[in-house]
Amino acid sequence: xxxxxxxxxxxxxxxxxxxxxxxxxxxxxxxxxxxxxxxxxxxxxxxxxxxxxxxxxxxxxxxxxxxxxxxxxxxxxxxxxxxxxxxxxxxxxxxxxxxxxxxxxxxxxxxxxxxxxxxxxxxxxxxxxxxxxxxxx
Length: 137
Known about the structure:
Blueprint lengths: L2 E4 L1 H9 L3 H10 L4 E4 L1 H11 L8 H14 L1 E2 L17 H10 L3 E3 L3 H4 L8 E3 L1 H7 L4
């Protein structure tokens, strides 16, 4: 089974908007893929959903986080020593989680992550590419 890790921005889009990220979340819910997440991604997701612009209640956010914990596998991350090609150091934890989980695909909308070309262990793709690869686009 395919092993994937979603960046926070894909979860946000899947939770709050319809579209391609929602289809990926449905794959996770239906157990068509093995999805992984880290505590750092969960924290970033909680922080992002808590921003006033989204106007979400604390109860709703906690339910969402609980559901995501239920449908994903928590990975203990191993710190990377360095990743010089990554322009945005705030994304470092995403790479650490993807390497630690030994995923096939890191799915993101983040241009800094998508620009990384030299990673051999997994592919970094956007939601559209994921859906095309699995034949739904």
